[in-house]
Amino acid sequence: MASKFVVIMMALVLPIFVPYVAASALPIHVALYAYFYILAISSLTLIFSIFLIATWSGERRVLAFLIAITVLINVFGVYTSFSREFWVYSYEETLLRLLMKTTSSEIIALSFLSIYFPLLSFGIWKAGREIAFLKFKDLIISISLLLLLVIAIVVANLYSQMESQIKEFFNVLLSADVLLIFFYALLVRIYRETEAKAYYLTILGFFFLKFLSDFTVVGGMTLAGIPVVFYTMSHATLLAGMVHLYMRDIKILTYQDVVEEKERIMDLYKRVSELQEVLAVMNKMLRHDVKNKLQVILGYIEIYLTERDERYLEKAIQAVEETNQYINKIRDLERAISTEKSVLKPVNIREVFEEIFEFYQIQSTIQGNCYVLADEAIYSVIDNIINNAIKHGKTDRIDVKLSEIDGECEIRIIDYGIGIPSEIKRKIFEEKFTLDPHSGSGLGLYVVRKVVERYGGRIWVEDTKPRGATFVLRLKIKLQ
Questions:
Q1: Distance between CA atoms of 389 and 118, rounded to whole angstroms?
Q2: Do 87 and 126 reside in the same domain of the chain?
Q3: Are 354 and 333 in a shared domain?
Q4: What is the pLDDT along the chain (480 residues), one digit of tens a residue?
Q5: CATH, residue 463
Q6: Which of 227, 278, 464, 478 could form a disulfide with 216 if both were Cys (CB 3.0 to 4.6 A apart)?
Q7: What is the 3-state secondary structure of the chain?
Q8: Where a domain ends, among 341, 368, 392?
Q9: Are residues 336 and 319 in the same domain?
Q10: How far apart are CA 173 and CA 116, in angstroms?
Q11: Are residues 19 and 110 part of one domain?
Q12: Are residues 31 and 104 located together in one domain of the fold?
Protein backbone atom coordinates (compact mmCIF):
# COMPACT_ATOMS: atom_id res chain seq x y z
CA MET A 1 0.00 0.00 0.00
CA ALA A 2 2.91 2.38 0.63
CA SER A 3 4.01 1.81 -2.98
CA LYS A 4 0.56 2.96 -4.14
CA PHE A 5 1.05 6.16 -2.16
CA VAL A 6 4.36 6.75 -3.97
CA VAL A 7 2.75 6.08 -7.36
CA ILE A 8 -0.09 8.53 -6.65
CA MET A 9 2.39 11.10 -5.35
CA MET A 10 4.59 10.81 -8.46
CA ALA A 11 1.60 11.03 -10.79
CA LEU A 12 0.53 14.28 -9.13
CA VAL A 13 3.99 15.84 -8.92
CA LEU A 14 5.54 14.99 -12.30
CA PRO A 15 3.41 17.44 -14.35
CA ILE A 16 4.93 20.39 -12.45
CA PHE A 17 8.34 19.50 -13.89
CA VAL A 18 7.09 19.63 -17.50
CA PRO A 19 8.14 23.31 -17.96
CA TYR A 20 11.72 22.36 -17.02
CA VAL A 21 12.06 19.64 -19.64
CA ALA A 22 9.63 20.64 -22.39
CA ALA A 23 8.71 24.30 -21.97
CA SER A 24 8.58 24.87 -25.73
CA ALA A 25 5.96 22.14 -26.09
CA LEU A 26 3.50 23.89 -23.79
CA PRO A 27 0.62 25.57 -25.65
CA ILE A 28 0.40 28.30 -22.97
CA HIS A 29 2.78 30.47 -20.98
CA VAL A 30 4.83 28.56 -18.37
CA ALA A 31 3.61 30.71 -15.48
CA LEU A 32 0.00 30.31 -16.60
CA TYR A 33 0.52 26.53 -16.82
CA ALA A 34 1.84 26.47 -13.24
CA TYR A 35 -1.04 28.63 -12.01
CA PHE A 36 -3.74 26.40 -13.49
CA TYR A 37 -1.94 23.26 -12.35
CA ILE A 38 -1.83 24.47 -8.71
CA LEU A 39 -5.48 25.50 -8.94
CA ALA A 40 -6.41 22.11 -10.39
CA ILE A 41 -4.61 20.02 -7.75
CA SER A 42 -6.00 22.20 -4.95
CA SER A 43 -9.54 21.85 -6.34
CA LEU A 44 -9.10 18.07 -6.66
CA THR A 45 -7.92 17.88 -3.04
CA LEU A 46 -10.94 19.94 -1.96
CA ILE A 47 -13.37 17.67 -3.82
CA PHE A 48 -11.80 14.54 -2.35
CA SER A 49 -11.84 15.96 1.19
CA ILE A 50 -15.55 16.75 0.81
CA PHE A 51 -16.06 13.14 -0.31
CA LEU A 52 -14.25 11.98 2.85
CA ILE A 53 -16.48 14.18 5.02
CA ALA A 54 -19.47 12.30 3.63
CA THR A 55 -17.74 8.91 3.93
CA TRP A 56 -15.91 9.07 7.24
CA SER A 57 -17.34 9.54 10.73
CA GLY A 58 -16.21 10.69 14.15
CA GLU A 59 -12.75 12.17 14.52
CA ARG A 60 -11.82 11.29 10.94
CA ARG A 61 -14.72 13.35 9.64
CA VAL A 62 -13.60 16.31 11.76
CA LEU A 63 -10.09 16.04 10.33
CA ALA A 64 -11.43 15.78 6.74
CA PHE A 65 -13.58 18.86 7.40
CA LEU A 66 -10.59 20.86 8.64
CA ILE A 67 -8.53 19.78 5.64
CA ALA A 68 -11.38 20.87 3.35
CA ILE A 69 -11.44 24.32 5.01
CA THR A 70 -7.65 24.59 4.67
CA VAL A 71 -7.71 23.71 0.99
CA LEU A 72 -10.74 25.94 0.31
CA ILE A 73 -8.91 28.93 1.78
CA ASN A 74 -5.89 28.01 -0.34
CA VAL A 75 -8.00 27.82 -3.53
CA PHE A 76 -9.42 31.24 -2.72
CA GLY A 77 -5.91 32.68 -2.21
CA VAL A 78 -4.59 31.18 -5.45
CA TYR A 79 -7.65 32.32 -7.42
CA THR A 80 -7.55 35.92 -6.16
CA SER A 81 -3.83 36.21 -6.92
CA PHE A 82 -4.55 35.79 -10.65
CA SER A 83 -3.69 38.75 -12.87
CA ARG A 84 -3.50 38.67 -16.68
CA GLU A 85 -0.66 41.20 -16.81
CA PHE A 86 1.74 38.76 -15.14
CA TRP A 87 1.80 36.21 -17.92
CA VAL A 88 3.97 38.22 -20.29
CA TYR A 89 6.99 37.99 -18.01
CA SER A 90 9.47 35.21 -17.43
CA TYR A 91 8.67 32.43 -14.97
CA GLU A 92 10.85 33.91 -12.22
CA GLU A 93 9.70 37.48 -12.84
CA THR A 94 6.07 36.34 -12.73
CA LEU A 95 6.71 34.65 -9.38
CA LEU A 96 8.25 37.80 -7.89
CA ARG A 97 5.33 39.92 -9.04
CA LEU A 98 2.88 37.42 -7.54
CA LEU A 99 4.76 37.57 -4.25
CA MET A 100 4.56 41.37 -4.25
CA LYS A 101 0.81 41.24 -4.95
CA THR A 102 0.34 38.68 -2.14
CA THR A 103 2.07 40.85 0.44
CA SER A 104 0.45 44.10 -0.70
CA SER A 105 -3.11 42.74 -0.79
CA GLU A 106 -4.68 42.34 2.66
CA ILE A 107 -7.30 39.88 1.36
CA ILE A 108 -4.75 37.57 -0.27
CA ALA A 109 -2.32 37.85 2.65
CA LEU A 110 -5.09 37.08 5.17
CA SER A 111 -6.24 34.07 3.14
CA PHE A 112 -2.75 32.52 3.10
CA LEU A 113 -2.38 33.18 6.85
CA SER A 114 -5.78 31.59 7.53
CA ILE A 115 -4.61 28.32 5.97
CA TYR A 116 -2.85 27.40 9.21
CA PHE A 117 -5.58 27.84 11.81
CA PRO A 118 -7.86 24.79 11.16
CA LEU A 119 -5.13 22.13 11.28
CA LEU A 120 -3.13 23.99 13.94
CA SER A 121 -6.20 23.91 16.20
CA PHE A 122 -6.60 20.18 15.60
CA GLY A 123 -2.90 19.52 16.26
CA ILE A 124 -2.92 21.46 19.54
CA TRP A 125 -6.16 19.76 20.66
CA LYS A 126 -4.92 16.27 19.77
CA ALA A 127 -1.49 16.75 21.36
CA GLY A 128 -3.10 18.20 24.50
CA ARG A 129 -5.46 15.24 24.69
CA GLU A 130 -2.56 12.77 24.65
CA ILE A 131 -0.20 14.81 26.84
CA ALA A 132 -0.43 12.21 29.63
CA PHE A 133 1.08 9.59 27.30
CA LEU A 134 3.85 11.84 25.97
CA LYS A 135 7.35 10.49 26.57
CA PHE A 136 10.28 12.75 27.32
CA LYS A 137 12.21 11.36 24.34
CA ASP A 138 9.36 12.25 21.96
CA LEU A 139 9.30 15.82 23.28
CA ILE A 140 13.07 16.20 22.93
CA ILE A 141 13.04 14.96 19.32
CA SER A 142 10.22 17.34 18.36
CA ILE A 143 11.86 20.31 20.09
CA SER A 144 15.17 19.49 18.39
CA LEU A 145 13.42 19.54 15.00
CA LEU A 146 11.80 22.87 15.89
CA LEU A 147 15.17 24.41 16.87
CA LEU A 148 16.78 23.11 13.68
CA LEU A 149 14.11 24.76 11.54
CA VAL A 150 14.38 28.03 13.49
CA ILE A 151 18.15 28.08 12.94
CA ALA A 152 17.60 27.50 9.22
CA ILE A 153 15.19 30.47 9.11
CA VAL A 154 17.69 32.71 10.90
CA VAL A 155 20.46 31.74 8.47
CA ALA A 156 18.18 32.30 5.47
CA ASN A 157 17.33 35.80 6.70
CA LEU A 158 21.00 36.67 7.25
CA TYR A 159 21.94 35.94 3.65
CA SER A 160 18.65 36.83 1.95
CA GLN A 161 18.47 39.53 -0.75
CA MET A 162 14.68 39.34 -0.94
CA GLU A 163 12.68 42.57 -0.57
CA SER A 164 11.91 43.31 3.08
CA GLN A 165 8.13 43.44 2.58
CA ILE A 166 8.06 39.92 1.11
CA LYS A 167 10.58 38.61 3.62
CA GLU A 168 8.64 39.89 6.64
CA PHE A 169 5.36 38.36 5.48
CA PHE A 170 6.91 34.98 4.64
CA ASN A 171 8.74 34.93 7.97
CA VAL A 172 5.30 35.00 9.58
CA LEU A 173 4.28 32.07 7.36
CA LEU A 174 7.47 30.21 8.28
CA SER A 175 6.72 30.68 11.99
CA ALA A 176 3.30 29.11 11.48
CA ASP A 177 4.88 26.30 9.41
CA VAL A 178 7.34 25.52 12.21
CA LEU A 179 4.60 25.51 14.85
CA LEU A 180 2.50 23.06 12.88
CA ILE A 181 5.52 20.86 12.09
CA PHE A 182 6.30 20.71 15.82
CA PHE A 183 2.82 19.55 16.86
CA TYR A 184 2.40 16.99 14.08
CA ALA A 185 5.95 15.66 14.57
CA LEU A 186 4.95 15.19 18.21
CA LEU A 187 1.83 13.26 17.18
CA VAL A 188 3.84 11.10 14.78
CA ARG A 189 6.20 10.23 17.64
CA ILE A 190 3.34 9.45 20.03
CA TYR A 191 1.59 7.21 17.49
CA ARG A 192 4.73 5.80 15.88
CA GLU A 193 3.76 2.20 16.73
CA THR A 194 0.27 2.46 15.21
CA GLU A 195 -1.18 2.84 11.72
CA ALA A 196 -2.87 6.06 12.87
CA LYS A 197 0.47 7.87 12.49
CA ALA A 198 -0.24 7.95 8.71
CA TYR A 199 -2.75 10.78 9.33
CA TYR A 200 -0.19 12.93 11.09
CA LEU A 201 2.57 12.02 8.62
CA THR A 202 0.35 13.25 5.78
CA ILE A 203 -0.26 16.61 7.43
CA LEU A 204 3.38 16.82 8.56
CA GLY A 205 4.51 16.23 4.96
CA PHE A 206 2.12 18.91 3.72
CA PHE A 207 3.43 21.60 6.07
CA PHE A 208 7.07 20.55 5.78
CA LEU A 209 6.98 21.00 2.00
CA LYS A 210 5.12 24.25 2.47
CA PHE A 211 7.90 25.28 4.88
CA LEU A 212 10.45 24.58 2.13
CA SER A 213 8.39 26.70 -0.27
CA ASP A 214 8.25 29.65 2.14
CA PHE A 215 11.90 29.09 3.13
CA THR A 216 13.12 29.38 -0.48
CA VAL A 217 11.15 32.63 -0.82
CA VAL A 218 12.73 34.16 2.29
CA GLY A 219 16.15 32.92 1.20
CA GLY A 220 15.68 34.46 -2.24
CA MET A 221 15.94 31.09 -3.99
CA THR A 222 13.32 31.91 -6.61
CA LEU A 223 15.32 30.77 -9.65
CA ALA A 224 13.09 28.85 -12.10
CA GLY A 225 10.20 29.06 -9.65
CA ILE A 226 11.61 26.62 -7.04
CA PRO A 227 9.11 27.80 -4.36
CA VAL A 228 6.27 26.87 -6.73
CA VAL A 229 7.61 23.31 -7.03
CA PHE A 230 7.62 22.79 -3.25
CA TYR A 231 4.23 24.47 -2.93
CA THR A 232 2.74 22.12 -5.52
CA MET A 233 4.43 19.10 -3.95
CA SER A 234 2.87 19.98 -0.59
CA HIS A 235 -0.64 19.76 -2.05
CA ALA A 236 0.24 16.61 -3.98
CA THR A 237 1.42 15.03 -0.72
CA LEU A 238 -1.81 16.00 1.03
CA LEU A 239 -3.98 14.53 -1.74
CA ALA A 240 -1.89 11.35 -2.09
CA GLY A 241 -1.94 10.87 1.68
CA MET A 242 -5.71 11.25 1.85
CA VAL A 243 -6.20 8.72 -0.95
CA HIS A 244 -3.83 6.33 0.86
CA LEU A 245 -5.75 6.72 4.15
CA TYR A 246 -9.06 6.13 2.37
CA MET A 247 -7.79 3.00 0.62
CA ARG A 248 -6.33 1.57 3.83
CA ASP A 249 -9.36 2.62 5.92
CA ILE A 250 -7.04 3.42 8.82
CA LYS A 251 -8.81 4.41 12.03
CA ILE A 252 -7.81 7.39 14.15
CA LEU A 253 -7.09 6.15 17.66
CA THR A 254 -6.73 7.90 20.94
CA TYR A 255 -3.68 6.78 22.89
CA GLN A 256 -6.08 5.32 25.46
CA ASP A 257 -7.37 3.05 22.67
CA VAL A 258 -3.77 2.02 22.00
CA VAL A 259 -3.17 1.23 25.68
CA GLU A 260 -6.40 -0.79 25.89
CA GLU A 261 -5.49 -2.69 22.73
CA LYS A 262 -2.06 -3.50 24.17
CA GLU A 263 -3.67 -4.72 27.37
CA ARG A 264 -6.12 -6.85 25.35
CA ILE A 265 -3.25 -8.37 23.37
CA MET A 266 -1.26 -9.02 26.56
CA ASP A 267 -4.29 -10.69 28.13
CA LEU A 268 -4.75 -12.79 25.00
CA TYR A 269 -1.06 -13.71 25.07
CA LYS A 270 -1.37 -14.72 28.72
CA ARG A 271 -4.40 -16.88 27.99
CA VAL A 272 -2.65 -18.54 25.05
CA SER A 273 0.39 -19.19 27.27
CA GLU A 274 -1.87 -20.75 29.89
CA LEU A 275 -3.50 -22.91 27.25
CA GLN A 276 -0.10 -24.03 26.01
CA GLU A 277 0.83 -24.85 29.59
CA VAL A 278 -2.23 -27.00 30.18
CA LEU A 279 -1.85 -28.71 26.82
CA ALA A 280 1.77 -29.54 27.66
CA VAL A 281 0.72 -30.99 31.04
CA MET A 282 -2.15 -32.96 29.50
CA ASN A 283 0.13 -34.24 26.75
CA LYS A 284 2.65 -35.55 29.31
CA MET A 285 -0.13 -37.09 31.37
CA LEU A 286 -1.75 -38.83 28.43
CA ARG A 287 1.53 -40.02 26.93
CA HIS A 288 3.09 -41.18 30.17
CA ASP A 289 0.80 -41.57 33.18
CA VAL A 290 -2.44 -42.73 31.53
CA LYS A 291 -0.50 -44.97 29.15
CA ASN A 292 1.29 -46.58 32.11
CA LYS A 293 -2.02 -47.12 33.90
CA LEU A 294 -3.48 -48.83 30.84
CA GLN A 295 -0.44 -51.11 30.60
CA VAL A 296 -0.86 -52.02 34.28
CA ILE A 297 -4.55 -52.81 33.70
CA LEU A 298 -3.68 -54.89 30.65
CA GLY A 299 -1.05 -56.78 32.70
CA TYR A 300 -3.51 -57.59 35.49
CA ILE A 301 -6.08 -58.84 32.99
CA GLU A 302 -3.53 -61.06 31.22
CA ILE A 303 -2.47 -62.61 34.56
CA TYR A 304 -6.13 -63.11 35.51
CA LEU A 305 -6.86 -64.86 32.20
CA THR A 306 -3.88 -67.13 32.80
CA GLU A 307 -4.26 -67.90 36.52
CA ARG A 308 -7.95 -67.09 37.08
CA ASP A 309 -6.98 -65.37 40.32
CA GLU A 310 -9.76 -62.94 41.39
CA ARG A 311 -7.21 -60.72 43.14
CA TYR A 312 -5.76 -59.58 39.79
CA LEU A 313 -9.21 -58.80 38.46
CA GLU A 314 -9.87 -56.65 41.52
CA LYS A 315 -6.54 -54.89 41.00
CA ALA A 316 -7.45 -54.25 37.35
CA ILE A 317 -10.79 -52.77 38.41
CA GLN A 318 -9.07 -50.59 41.01
CA ALA A 319 -6.57 -49.41 38.37
CA VAL A 320 -9.50 -48.54 36.06
CA GLU A 321 -11.05 -46.44 38.82
CA GLU A 322 -7.73 -44.69 39.45
CA THR A 323 -7.41 -43.99 35.72
CA ASN A 324 -10.93 -42.58 35.68
CA GLN A 325 -10.06 -40.30 38.60
CA TYR A 326 -6.92 -39.28 36.76
CA ILE A 327 -8.91 -38.36 33.65
CA ASN A 328 -11.25 -36.35 35.85
CA LYS A 329 -8.20 -34.43 37.09
CA ILE A 330 -7.31 -33.68 33.49
CA ARG A 331 -10.86 -32.40 32.96
CA ASP A 332 -10.58 -30.22 36.06
CA LEU A 333 -7.29 -28.83 34.81
CA GLU A 334 -8.79 -28.01 31.41
CA ARG A 335 -11.64 -26.18 33.11
CA ALA A 336 -9.24 -24.34 35.41
CA ILE A 337 -7.15 -22.98 32.53
CA SER A 338 -9.61 -22.28 29.75
CA THR A 339 -9.41 -19.55 27.09
CA GLU A 340 -13.20 -19.40 27.19
CA LYS A 341 -13.45 -18.19 30.76
CA SER A 342 -16.88 -18.21 32.36
CA VAL A 343 -18.42 -15.12 33.87
CA LEU A 344 -17.75 -14.87 37.59
CA LYS A 345 -20.75 -14.37 39.85
CA PRO A 346 -21.33 -14.04 43.62
CA VAL A 347 -21.13 -17.41 45.37
CA ASN A 348 -21.98 -18.08 49.03
CA ILE A 349 -18.76 -19.77 50.08
CA ARG A 350 -20.25 -21.08 53.36
CA GLU A 351 -22.86 -23.03 51.41
CA VAL A 352 -20.10 -24.50 49.22
CA PHE A 353 -18.33 -25.86 52.31
CA GLU A 354 -21.58 -27.21 53.77
CA GLU A 355 -22.37 -29.14 50.59
CA ILE A 356 -18.85 -30.59 50.30
CA PHE A 357 -18.64 -31.62 53.97
CA GLU A 358 -21.78 -33.74 53.48
CA PHE A 359 -19.68 -36.17 51.40
CA TYR A 360 -16.96 -36.58 54.03
CA GLN A 361 -17.28 -38.43 57.33
CA ILE A 362 -15.19 -35.98 59.33
CA GLN A 363 -15.74 -33.58 62.19
CA SER A 364 -15.97 -30.01 60.89
CA THR A 365 -16.96 -26.48 61.89
CA ILE A 366 -17.61 -23.34 59.82
CA GLN A 367 -17.32 -19.84 61.27
CA GLY A 368 -18.41 -16.68 59.47
CA ASN A 369 -19.71 -16.16 55.97
CA CYS A 370 -18.98 -14.16 52.81
CA TYR A 371 -19.71 -14.09 49.10
CA VAL A 372 -16.91 -14.48 46.59
CA LEU A 373 -16.75 -13.89 42.84
CA ALA A 374 -16.33 -17.38 41.37
CA ASP A 375 -17.88 -20.04 39.15
CA GLU A 376 -18.55 -23.78 39.40
CA ALA A 377 -14.82 -24.53 39.65
CA ILE A 378 -14.84 -23.24 43.25
CA TYR A 379 -16.31 -26.61 44.30
CA SER A 380 -13.27 -28.37 42.80
CA VAL A 381 -10.96 -25.97 44.67
CA ILE A 382 -12.51 -26.59 48.10
CA ASP A 383 -12.94 -30.32 47.50
CA ASN A 384 -9.29 -30.72 46.49
CA ILE A 385 -8.04 -29.00 49.64
CA ILE A 386 -10.33 -30.97 51.97
CA ASN A 387 -9.58 -34.27 50.24
CA ASN A 388 -5.85 -33.51 50.42
CA ALA A 389 -6.12 -32.77 54.17
CA ILE A 390 -7.94 -36.05 54.83
CA LYS A 391 -6.01 -38.30 52.45
CA HIS A 392 -2.46 -36.96 52.83
CA GLY A 393 -2.68 -34.83 55.97
CA LYS A 394 -4.37 -37.65 57.99
CA THR A 395 -6.52 -35.12 59.84
CA ASP A 396 -9.60 -36.13 61.84
CA ARG A 397 -11.05 -32.63 62.02
CA ILE A 398 -11.29 -29.56 59.77
CA ASP A 399 -12.23 -26.04 60.88
CA VAL A 400 -13.14 -23.31 58.39
CA LYS A 401 -13.01 -19.59 59.21
CA LEU A 402 -14.49 -17.05 56.79
CA SER A 403 -13.96 -13.30 57.15
CA GLU A 404 -13.76 -10.12 55.08
CA ILE A 405 -10.34 -8.42 55.15
CA ASP A 406 -9.33 -5.39 53.04
CA GLY A 407 -12.15 -5.89 50.57
CA GLU A 408 -11.43 -9.60 50.13
CA CYS A 409 -12.83 -12.81 51.56
CA GLU A 410 -10.23 -14.70 53.56
CA ILE A 411 -10.87 -18.43 53.71
CA ARG A 412 -8.85 -20.36 56.29
CA ILE A 413 -9.11 -24.17 56.00
CA ILE A 414 -7.49 -25.56 59.16
CA ASP A 415 -6.55 -29.22 59.60
CA TYR A 416 -4.84 -30.97 62.49
CA GLY A 417 -3.00 -33.73 60.66
CA ILE A 418 0.67 -34.41 60.11
CA GLY A 419 1.28 -30.97 58.57
CA ILE A 420 3.49 -29.96 55.65
CA PRO A 421 7.28 -29.58 55.99
CA SER A 422 8.49 -25.99 55.60
CA GLU A 423 10.89 -26.87 52.77
CA ILE A 424 8.07 -28.01 50.47
CA LYS A 425 5.39 -25.43 51.28
CA ARG A 426 6.21 -23.48 48.11
CA LYS A 427 6.34 -26.59 45.97
CA ILE A 428 2.97 -28.14 46.76
CA PHE A 429 1.15 -25.94 44.21
CA GLU A 430 3.52 -26.83 41.37
CA GLU A 431 2.63 -29.14 38.52
CA LYS A 432 3.08 -32.87 39.28
CA PHE A 433 4.25 -32.32 42.87
CA THR A 434 2.88 -34.95 45.26
CA LEU A 435 3.72 -36.17 48.74
CA ASP A 436 2.81 -39.72 47.76
CA PRO A 437 3.82 -40.68 44.19
CA HIS A 438 1.98 -43.99 44.48
CA SER A 439 -1.42 -42.56 45.36
CA GLY A 440 -1.48 -39.02 44.00
CA SER A 441 -1.45 -37.48 40.52
CA GLY A 442 0.19 -34.27 41.70
CA LEU A 443 -2.51 -32.25 39.94
CA GLY A 444 -4.94 -31.47 42.77
CA LEU A 445 -3.27 -28.43 44.32
CA TYR A 446 -1.90 -27.34 40.93
CA VAL A 447 -5.50 -27.11 39.67
CA VAL A 448 -6.44 -25.25 42.87
CA ARG A 449 -3.73 -22.63 42.27
CA LYS A 450 -4.69 -22.11 38.62
CA VAL A 451 -8.38 -21.63 39.45
CA VAL A 452 -7.63 -19.19 42.28
CA GLU A 453 -5.34 -17.20 39.97
CA ARG A 454 -8.08 -17.10 37.36
CA TYR A 455 -10.37 -15.58 39.98
CA GLY A 456 -7.75 -12.90 40.63
CA GLY A 457 -7.04 -14.31 44.10
CA ARG A 458 -4.15 -15.77 46.10
CA ILE A 459 -3.47 -18.98 47.99
CA TRP A 460 -0.77 -20.09 50.42
CA VAL A 461 -0.27 -22.53 53.27
CA GLU A 462 0.64 -21.93 56.94
CA ASP A 463 1.32 -24.16 59.93
CA THR A 464 -1.44 -25.07 62.36
CA LYS A 465 -0.34 -24.94 65.99
CA PRO A 466 0.60 -27.34 67.53
CA ARG A 467 0.35 -29.51 64.39
CA GLY A 468 -1.33 -29.59 61.01
CA ALA A 469 -1.65 -27.24 58.04
CA THR A 470 -3.81 -24.21 57.28
CA PHE A 471 -4.65 -23.34 53.67
CA VAL A 472 -5.41 -19.63 53.25
CA LEU A 473 -7.30 -18.27 50.25
CA ARG A 474 -7.96 -14.61 49.48
CA LEU A 475 -10.72 -14.11 46.90
CA LYS A 476 -12.56 -11.04 45.64
CA ILE A 477 -15.87 -10.47 47.42
CA LYS A 478 -19.26 -9.69 45.95
CA LEU A 479 -19.50 -6.05 44.94
CA GLN A 480 -22.28 -4.21 46.79
A1: 72
A2: yes
A3: no
A4: 466 777 777 778 788 777 777 766 677 777 788 888 888 999 999 999 999 999 998 889 999 999 999 999 988 888 887 776 666 667 677 778 888 888 888 888 888 899 999 999 999 998 888 887 788 898 999 999 999 999 999 999 998 888 888 999 999 999 999 999 999 999 999 888 888 899 999 999 999 999 999 999 999 888 878 888 899 899 999 999 999 899 888 888 776 666 676 777 777 776 666 666 666 656 655 555 677 677 778 888 888 788 878 888 788 888 787 777 767 766 666 665 554 556 788 999 999 999 999 888 899 999 999 999 988 788 888 988 998 899 888 999 999 999 998 889 999 999 999 988 887 877 888 765 665 544 454 567 887 888 888 888 999 999 988 889 999 999 998 654
A5: 3.30.565.10
A6: 227
A7: CHHHHHHHHHHHHHHHHHHHHHHHHCCCCHHHHHHHHHHHHHHHHHHHHHHHHHHCCHHHHHHHHHHHHHHHHHHHHHHHCCCHHHHHCCHHHHHHHHHHHHHHCHHHHHHHHHCHHHHHHHHHHHHHHCHHHCCHHHHHHHHHHHHHHHHHHHHHHHHCCCCHHHHHHHHHHHHHHHHHHHHHHHHHHHCCCCCCHHHHHHHHHHHHHHHHHHHHHHCCCCHHHHHHHHHHHHHHHHHHHHHHHHHHCCCCCCHHHHHHHHHHHHHHHHHHHHHHHHHHHHHHHHHHHHHHHHHHHHHHHHHHHHHCCHHHHHHHHHHHHHHHHHHHHHHHHHHHCCCCCCCCEEEEHHHHHHHHHCCCCCEEEEECCCEEEECCHHHHHHHHHHHHHHHCCCCCEEEEEEEEECCEEEEEEEECCCCCCHHHCCCCCCCCCCCCCCCCCCCHHHHHHHHHHHCCCEEEEEECCCCCEEEEEEEEECCC
A8: 341
A9: yes
A10: 9
A11: yes
A12: yes
Q: Are 472 and 462 in contact (CB under 8 A)?
A: yes
Residues 314 and 268 in one domain: yes
Contact 150, 179 (CB under 8 A): no
Residue-number span of the structural domain to which 326 is assigned: 254-341
Q: Is the previous residue joined to 437 through a cis bond, with omega within 30 degrees of 0?
A: no
Domain boundary among 315, 341, 367: 341
Q: How many domains does the chain have?
A: 3
Q: What is the pTM of this model?
A: 0.59
84 and 151 in a single domain? The answer is yes
